[in-house]
Design goal:
Helix 2 runs parallel beside helix 6. 28% of the residues lie in helices and 24% in strands. The protein is globular, with a radius of gyration of 19 Å. By secondary structure, it is an alpha+beta fold. A 6-stranded antiparallel beta sheet has the order 1-4-6-5-9-8, with helices on one face. Strands 7-10-11-12-13-14 form a 6-stranded mixed beta sheet. The protein folds into 2 domains: 59 residues, no CATH class; 158 residues, tt1808, chain A (Alpha-Beta Complex), CATH 3.90.1570.20.
Length: 229
């Protein structure tokens, strides 16, 4: 089966013509990619910072923009602060690769966490997604493009809760019994966390320093704590 390249802009290439990296913020799509080749590309050190989505022979990869990474990391920091102030055990798994050969699919979230299953997964060195639970919460940031088919992949892996930052707003979704994501007003993992507070903090990125924003959120979460600590 031949491999077909679809890209809106020419990717960087080496002397032999092989693709090295995509243009930042613009996806490169390859068709006819075997599971073996996908695994090989994912393991290559030079691809460490490149996000890959593999879906039954179709491989999409992209180098994220700085603004994408800034928002994703900041949202992750807010989640950890909230968990700390509420004494909620949480395992932050970042951008770990989630893949299953039987599903013929694999991807990296922008952020993901074990919360309800934190105790079960504590100390696990290598996750087997065929037998171990998927992350309880995943976060995706849309900057230059919509989530698209990646939502279908999340559903295939049965990730129960998905947050999507898009259009300067944070949207919360729950996986339904029918395998579709339905919007929610509040988080399943953090039912007491006001989503509007997260939105307000992210929207202020760029007008305030990151440390000052995190400190402000921490002070608010601490003052709002039922324990009063």
């Amino acid at each position: 089966m031949s491999t077909v390249l679809e890209t809106p802009a020419p990717p960087a290439t080496g002397a032999d013509g092989d693709i090295l990296v995509p243009v930042a913020g613009e996806p490169v799509v390859l068709h006819g990619v075997s599971w073996k080749l996908y695994r090989k590309l994912r393991r290559m050190p030079e691809n460490y910072n490149i996000r890959m989505i593999y879906d039954r022979g179709v491989l999409e990869f992209m180098s994220p923009l700085r603004v994408h990474e800034e928002i994703a990391e900041f949202l992750g920091d807010l989640v950890v602060i909230w968990a700390l102030e509420r004494d909620i055990e949480i395992a932050a798994c970042g951008k770990m690769t989630i893949r299953r050969r039987d599903l013929d699919r694999g991807f990296e979230p922008d952020n993901c966490y074990y919360i309800q299953h934190e105790a079960q997964m504590r100390g696990t060195k290598k996750v087997n997604f065929k037998s171990d639970p998927p992350p309880d919460l995943a976060i995706e940031v849309e900057v230059t493009r919509a989530l698209g088919k990646k939502a279908e992949i999340y559903a295939a892996f049965r990730v129960p809760e998905l947050w999507i930052w898009s259009g300067n707003a944070l949207k919360v979704f729950e996986l339904s019994g029918g395998g579709q994501y339905a919007p929610r007003e509040s988080s399943i993992c953090f039912p007491q966390l006001p989503i509007v507070k997260l939105e307000d903090s992210v929207r202020r990125l760029g007008s305030m320093g990151r440390t000052a924003l995190l400190r402000s959120f921490r002070d608010w979460a601490r003052a709002d704590s039922p324990t009063g600590r």
